Amino acid sequence: MEGRMSRAPQHLDGRTNAVTEGPDWPVGAEAAGAQGARAQGAGAQGAGAPETATLVEILRDRIVREVFVSGQRLREREIAEEFAVSRAQVREAFSVLTERRLLDRKANVGVTVARLGPEEIAQLYELRGAVEGLAARLAAERAPEGAWDDLLHSFGAPADEMIAAADLEGYGKIVDEAQQRLVRYAANAVLNETMGVLADRSAVLARRSILLPGRTDVGLKMHRELLAALIARDGEAAERIKRANLADACERLVRFAHYLR
Length: 261
Fold this sequence. Notes:
3-stranded antiparallel β-sheet, globular, Arc Repressor Mutant, subunit A, Four Helix Bundle (Hemerythrin (Met), subunit A)
């Protein structure tokens, strides 16, 4: 589930992963304004130019989908011209994304897309384990009856078929839906906000982890075990399984970090 590349990325055990790319622009009323800004071309900020908050989300989306790759330098002038905004607005957007640790700003280098090393990956996944483990526990206790039934089906034969066909994009979508369901049924606004921040920093890693040798099979098994615990309302087991799943992903990401740069 790599982002945009010149060719389809190769799975480390030899399989090829087809990628379906989404739009660069957010959906909704603001998207129309942003697209209008692009149509205006370079120049001063126009009436249809995106607000700073929208520009932040557009750039965040490009980072998450690896349209902008780790270590890539982003230039104020180019971004300002593409979106027909002022360079001051671009600097403000860069500052927000730097605070979110998605961009790095260094003297004599400028602004680049953040690159995570093995130690940072381990620390990030350690925190994700604690936070998402709690989300799984709460969701097991709070979800309404039947909340997981459709996912139980999705992680059955359909998931097996997607993996057999190397449709990792499709498999990733049901994994994403499961994650969103955990957040919804945990019903804790502060936890939701914290998970959102961590999701931004680990989105690329989460997509890449699916490509690692053996990871898809282990992940599918653990998702099925997690769903069984959620349906049984066993919060302790749900938390333990969620933590174990993330720990396995982390171990593989660190082990194969040099393949993923």
